[in-house]
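Students often ask why we bother encoding 3D structure as a string. The short answer is that it lets us treat folding as translation between two languages. Here is a chain of 203 residues written in the first language.
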Amino acid sequence: MSKADQLDKLSGEWAACERCPLSRLRKRVVPGFGNPEAKLVIIGEVPTEDAVNGEIGMAGKIMNKLLHSVGISPKDVWHTNICLCRPAPSFKSKKRAPKLNEIRACYPRLVKELDIMKPEIIILAGNTPLYVATGKRGITKNRGWLDTFTMKCTFSGSKIYSTLHPSSLLHGSEEQKEMKADWMKEDWLEIARVFFGKEKREE
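And here it is in the second language, the structure alphabet:
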């Protein structure tokens, strides 16, 4: 069975998931998407509101622009999330991170998804993927390649890199946005070097 068929089967198995409370108020389950043969997988936190509605929003456009800027085609990437359901908004906030029980409920699917993909590079985009993989908090102080021998999770992949999620560029002051944009460009230039087989920085 091809990777595409295996991923479609996995998606079907989780399409009507009721393993955690997110199933009660969600609009729909948003499975991973992209190139099933991709050697680079990007893991976010939860689907964006635009993704839930089947659209590419600002975060997606930022990600695609960033990929293009370092020479990686968006068609050569697979996108997925820690949880496939977006938490419903509350009177306090339009967005919240998934809770631990919600993460645990969706984790076996993520492990299976990565086991099918067997990517060469995994990108942890944001605080929640970083925490799930390493137990560490604070993406800005934990950017970079991770020591896979000391990680808490069972993610497969020869190289794992943590960086900011593109949605972080939609929040904060202009100075903060500019600083985060510089960090992300620096990170993705490093990722691209390894993606294209250039392990060392060029002098």
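Translate back mentally: The domain at 3-195 is CATH 3.40.470.10 (Uracil-DNA Glycosylase, subunit E). Keep this in mind for the problem set.
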